[in-house]
Amino acid sequence: MANAIQSIRLDKLIAHPDNPNRQSSVTFNKLVRNIERTGRYEPILVRPHPEKEGCFQLINGHHRWRALTKLGCEAADCVVWDIDDEQTDILLATVNRLGGSDELGKKLTLLKRLNRSIESGELAKLLPQTAKQIERLTNLKMPSRPTGTDVKSFSNPMIFFVNDAQQGTIEKALSSVKEQTKEKTRAVKRAAALAHIAEEFLRRTMDEG
Predict the structure, then answer these.
(1) So what's the pLDDT on residue 153?
(2) For position 29, what pLDDT does the model report?
(3) Confidence (pTM)
(4) From the CB of residue 145, how many other CB atoms can be counted at a distance below 10 Å?
């Protein structure tokens, strides 16, 4: 498969009808602002259209294509792969779901560095996080690991954001479990309770399967 980048007119690019990836309007607008601000984007992955001669079918980059169209661009940087329907379906089913997860320490370093030159409100227009989430994260202090402590035994921080209803449900579940644990501190009790809830969920899922 060749990976040479080609400039292809946007009106020659056709969305795949079975593309399963969806993006919220908020995230899409952030993508538009990012491309408009930097003029850069990851090349779009396409293949020669199986039915329309001279056209290309989108495989990965539907939202970038829409963003470029919204910005009034005439062409997009593309990588053309000559692949069959089966290979295309595999890519459509996996290419947007194979990403890793953020390492918290490095994520915080990036956010703090960006926040020095771009205030949270403006940064929220470009990043997935809201302004409040950025402020919380940039004010978060990573615990230092005591000298001589085995890294495998050190607690791993987990951060996620929930709405009020979800928070209420989670707090209720944690409260019903954490008193049953033998741990001493509140934080450790909550961690043990959350792990217990997750284990119970996985056990029930396997039993039902």
Answers:
(1) 47
(2) 93
(3) 0.58
(4) 12
